[in-house]
Amino acid sequence: MTAHRGYFSLIQYCPDASRLEAANVGVVLFCPELSFLAARTSHGNDRVRRFFGRESFDPVSLSSAKLAMERRIVVEGERIRSLEQFQHFIATRANELKLTAPRPMQVADPAADLQSLFDELVGGRAKREPRTKRPSAIRQLHETFKQLADEGRAKLDYPVSVPIAGLDLKVPYAFRNGVWNLVKPQRFVGSELQVVGAAMRLAMEGDLLQRHGEDREGKKKLIVVSSFDASLPAAASNRVDKILSEYSVRDVPEKDIPKFVKEVVRVAH
Question: Which of 94, 113, 169, 219 is deepest in the core (most CB within 10 A)?
Fold first, then answer.
């Protein structure tokens, strides 16, 4: 089997950068010739617990950060094509999960080599999402924006005033891509009349923000992430989408969240 030049980087939990103490929680393998970039992270946090103590970290937050790191690696795999780009990606990690400088290695079977690196340098069980308990799309949305906020590329609970209406709101998520995109998950419940009313309110708020909401931070645009109660007819989602589109408010259906998340990770700055 032909061997190719590759590089690996350890994912380390480092709660205090000044002490230079870290615990290995995962590994990344990059092979430019095969366009391969992937990560494995530990299923549990036993190594971190042994290194730093049970009270030194929040296991839920750490597990979410590891999952977000794996997903970010998947997205970045579409555009990292050289060692220099991989090094730049490593240099931009600015939270408690760090990536070590890439080290060269020979790669024959990328997936098998990644697992071997994990077994040797991290140990334990690789993180897997059980098929019966996959994170919901809404949870994926939250975890992604939390990670982006930690990186300084998004904001949580973004305060905004709706012009003319005189409303002061907090939008759960916001990211910038030329304009400030205000992302609001909205679950539509009740009767069809109530659903239409909620859609109209969001549409008008989005229209006012887009036409009159520019301030020192720039222009604003509303994005609604929509989900629907199972009792509502399928036509309800089409009506909501048409209402929002009429007022230039983007509608992201729940089923499209994974694709939307990838887009946000790619363009947010």
Answer: 113
Please state, in angstroms and rounded to a whole number, the distance separating the CA atoms of residues 33 and 51.
Answer: 37
* pLDDT number for residue 18: 63
Q: Where are the alpha helices (DSSP H) in 98-191?
A: 110-121, 137-150
**Sequence ranges of the domains in the chain:** 4-133, 137-267
Residue-wise burial string across 194-230, b where 16 or more C-beta atoms lie within 10 A, e elsewhere = ebeebbeebbbbbbbbbeebeeeeeebbbbbbbbbee
Residue-wise pLDDT tens digits, 158-170: 988 887 777 777 8
Contact 123, 15 (CB under 8 A): no
User: Which pTM value belongs to this model?
Assistant: 0.52
Dihedral in degrees, nearest 10, Cα atoms 133, 231, 256, 241: -160
- CA pseudo-torsion sign 96, 100, 102, 107: negative
User: In this structure, are residues 12 and 28 in contact, taking their beta carbons and an 8 Å threshold?
Assistant: no
Convert the pLDDT of each residue in 131-166 to its tens digit. Answer: 333 446 888 898 899 999 999 999 998 988 887 777
* The CATH fold of domain 137-267: Trna Endonuclease; Chain: A, domain 1 (3.40.1350)
DSSP state of 126: B
Average pLDDT over residues 54-59: 76
